Amino acid sequence: MENVATTESIVAQAPKKRFFKKRSPEQATISAIVSFCGSSFFSRSIGELIASYFTLFLTDFMLIPTAQITILMLVTRIIDAFTDPIAGAINDITHTRWGKSRPYVLFGSFPLAIFTVLLFTVPNISVMGRLVYTYVMYIGYGLAQTIFSVPLATLSMSISADPKERKNIYTLSGFMGTLGTAIPGAVPIVFQYIATNHAQQETAYFVIAMVIGIGTLVFGIYSFFAMKEKVHSIKEVKKEKVKLTRNIKALLKNRPLICVFLSSVAISLRSMGYGAMIYFFKETMANYALATFIGIGSSIPSYVFMAAVPFLAKRFSPRNLCIAGYAYSALMYLLFFFAGYSSVFWVAFFFIISGVPNGMIGTCTTIIVADSVDYMEWRTGIRSEGLVWSINGLKTKAASTLSGMWLPIGLGMIGYHVAQSSSEFIIQSDATKQGLFYLITLAPLAGSTLAIIPMLFDNFYGKKREQIFAELEARREAAVEEEKAIEEKKAAAKAEPLAVTAEGTTPLSDTDAGIASDAEAVENTDDKSKN
Fold it and tell me: Which positions ≥6 away from 501 have C-beta within 8 Å?
C-alpha cells in the first residue's frame, strides 16, 4: 500500500500548466506586446481622426478657406521634413539608464495628448485668429507626434530579437491599429443620430479627441515601464560611435525603405479619396451615417486578411503581398467608376471590397521597414533604427500631407463652396456632387496603380532575405565573442603586474609595470652575454 500514490499526491507532483508558454530572454514579454499594441491603437486613432476629419473640421467648424488649408498642410510638413530625421538621429545617439527610446515615449505622450485635444477645439475668435491658432496647434501636434512615434517604432524593433516573432507582433499591432480607427469612424453616425446640430457636433469632436488623447497618455506611460530594449547593433556591442553623415549615407543605400517611401507617396492619392468620402456621403448621397456603416463593413474583411499575414508570409514575401494588394484595389476602383453611384448597394459594395487588402498592406509595409533596418546593417554595418523609423514617420506624414493638399485642391477644382459662418447652409451644385464621385474613384485608382511601381524595385525578399538574416546573426555572434575576448584580455592585463614588497604583493601601476618589464629584459641580456 505504501507504493500506491494517492490522487492528491499525483496532482501535487504534476507540473502546473502555464497559460502562456515560457518566453526566452530574446523574446518580447507579454506586457511589452500589450503596451505596444495599445499605443498603436491610439496612435492610429489620432492619425485617422486627422486624416479623415481634420479638413472637414477646418472648413465646416473653423470656417477656414480651402486655399489656406493647402498652405497650412504644406508649411507644417516642410517643418516635419526637418524635425523627423533630427528626432531619429537624436534617438540613435541617446544612451540613458532607461535605454535609447523609452524616455522619449514617456515624455512625448504628454504633449501629444494635449495638442490632439487642442487641435479639435474651436476658439471664440476671428477666422484669421483661428487660422493662426491652427498653425500653432498643428505644428505643435506634429512635433509631439514625432517625439512620441519615432522612439515607439524604434522600441518595437528592440523588444524582440526574433524576426519571426516581430512579424507576429507587427501583425497584432496592425490589427489593433486598424481597430483604433473605429473611434474616429464613429463620427458620422454620432453626427447623424446624436449630435444633430452644429454646436453639438463641435462638442463631439472635442470629446472624441479627449478620449483618444487620454488613451495615448495612459499607454505611453505603460510602454515606458513595459518595453525593454534587447537588440543591439554590432557597432553598439563594440561601443563604436557612428557619425551622423555615415548614418545618412547608409540610409541612402537602404533600398527596401526607399521603395516603401516612394510607394507611400504615390498612395497619398488614394488617401485623398478616403478624405473625400465624408464629403461624398454628406453631399452626394445625403446620408452621413452611411460612411460609418460602410467603414465597419470594409473593416471586417480587412481584419481577416491582416490576421492572415503570418500565414501568407510563409509562402509570399511582404513585398509581393503589397504589390498584389495594390493591384487588387486598382481593379476594384476601376469597376467602381464604371458602376456609378446611382445605387446605394453598389456604392457600399465597391467601398467594402476595394478596402479588403488595406490591413494586409499596412502590416506588410511595417514588416518591410522593420526588416530594412537589418538590411542596412548587413550592407553598411550601421544599424540606425531611429533614422529609419523617422523616415518611415516622415513617409506617413508626407503621404498625409499630400492627401491633405490634394483634397482641398480637388474640392476647389470641382467647385465645392465653404460656408462663411456657422449659421450659413450651403447647397452644392450637381456638378460638384458628381466631382466628389470622381475624387473617391479616380484618385484611389491612380494612387493604387502608381504605388506598385516602386515596390517592383525592392529585391530584399525570398531566399536572399533569409540568407541576409543568417549572415547578420553570425556577424553579431562573432562581434559579441570578439568583445568578450577583448574584455578578458583587459582584465588579465590588469591582474598580471604585481610588485613584491616586504608587506606582501601589491598591484603595480602601468608605469611601474613597464619599468619592471624593461629591467627584466636588461637582466636577461646581461646573463646571456656572461654565458
Answer: none
